[in-house]
Hints:
Blueprint: H1 2-17, E1 27-30, E2 38-43, E3 51-58, E4 63-64, H2 65-71, E5 76-77, E6 89-90, E7 121-127, E8 135-136, E9 145-146, E10 151-157
Parallel strand pairs: 2-10
Antiparallel strand pairs: 1-3, 2-3, 4-9, 5-6, 7-8, 7-10
Amino acid sequence: MRYSVLASTFLVVSVLGGCSAPTSQGFADGDIDSCEGTTVVVNFGLLSPDRETQCVEFEADSALAKDVLEFAGFSTEGTGTYGDQIVCRVNGLPSATEPFEVEGEDPYLETCADMPPAFGYWALWVSTDGSTEWTYAEEGVGTLMVEPGTSVGLVFSTGGETPTPTDP
Length: 168
């Protein structure tokens, strides 16, 4: 009996140890050119010249946007008042220690205590069924469920007309 428990444990460890994807959450990196999962696009706007696009594939019929973003390498932080229904920071931006500047506004230091200002906030976008049309998400990353074939995007908007995730 003891031998079979040890052998079973060794077999499970060996099989899991040799597996590179999917993860314990059921996520795997996908090919961005033929994404069969959810495409993630993050446009940092004036905070950074980076705009990143990744494909996250998953085994389930749907997944929580926050988890998909996290697997794609984007950590999000919510606000004290609204939690993760309002994205305040993505990968530490805007900085908690250095103000950002938007033309026509005083330098602003984001505390994430409450709603970000209209002149500098993260906009959450979705695009469904492989469409190239983006719409504002109707809920936050903590409750938004995405399915294969959809896209989720975050854009740091500086007021006025908010660009979509794929805009320059």
